[in-house]
């Protein structure tokens, strides 16, 4: 696998946390960061897939039914659905 160098300035406390976390995991900092970046990228891709699936569902079948609507808060908290603007509703 080819590699590329990535230089990212970080605050001193984050630098220390990364070094300590990598040491605790028993891996070099670069390996620890690669794992972290991969995991974050995979999570973002999964959220994007989920949002796309919801948009496609609603395009095909209309807005979610009441039963499905009850799941909206959980899906919103997970980042799958966007937060709705209720226009001042409490």
Spatial gap, N to C terminus: 53 Å
Mind telling me the C-alpha Rg?
Answer: 20 Å
Number of helices: 4
Which of globular, elongated, flat, extended, rod-shaped describes the shape?
A: elongated
Strand content: under 5%
Overall mean pLDDT score? Answer: 87
Write out key terms for the chains shown:
about 90 residues; mainly alpha
Helix and strand topology:
Blueprint: H1 12-25, H2 29-61, H3 66-69, H4 72-77
Helix pairs in contact: 1-2
Region (Disordered): 59-90
Protein name: Antitoxin
Structure, briefly:
This protein has helices spanning 12-25, 29-61, 66-69, 72-77. With 90 residues, the protein is mainly α.
What does this structure look like?
This protein is an all-alpha fold. It has one domain (13-77). The chain has helices spanning 12-25, 29-61, 66-69, 72-77. It is elongated and about 50 Å long.
């Amino acid at each position: 696998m080819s590699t590329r160098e990535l230089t990212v300035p970080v605050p001193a406390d984050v630098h220390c946390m990364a070094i300590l976390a990598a040491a605790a995991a028993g891996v070099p900092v670069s390996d620890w960061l690669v794992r972290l970046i991969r995991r974050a990228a995979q999570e973002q891709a999964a959220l994007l897939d989920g949002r796309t699936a919801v948009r496609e569902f609603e395009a095909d079948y209309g807005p979610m039914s009441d039963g499905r609507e009850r799941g909206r808060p959980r899906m919103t908290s997970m980042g799958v659905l966007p937060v709705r603007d209720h226009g001042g509703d409490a």
